[in-house]
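Sample entry follows:

_____
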Amino acid sequence: MACRYSPEAWKVFLEIQRRLSPAEKLRRALDLSALVRGATEAVRGLYPLASEHEIFLRTARLALGEELFQQAYGNAIPPDGPAFRRP
């Protein structure tokens, strides 16, 4: 897996993940899911006219960063349209 961190840091991260109990892994997954839902609702509030697909893309842009988003989705949506921000 490509990683933006050093190989040593990635090894430490994986070792920490291996040591987690199943309950802790589940708790972290649920916390991450809640974080994504919160980000999605924030984007929906900023772009009230956006379709569900556009909300998905805008949330993905936030999560991935602009460079990776462009690699994955290209110019799927312009930075501020068609569902413009509220004034």
Notes: The longest helix spans residues 22-46. Residues 26-87 form one domain. The chain has a mean pLDDT of 85.
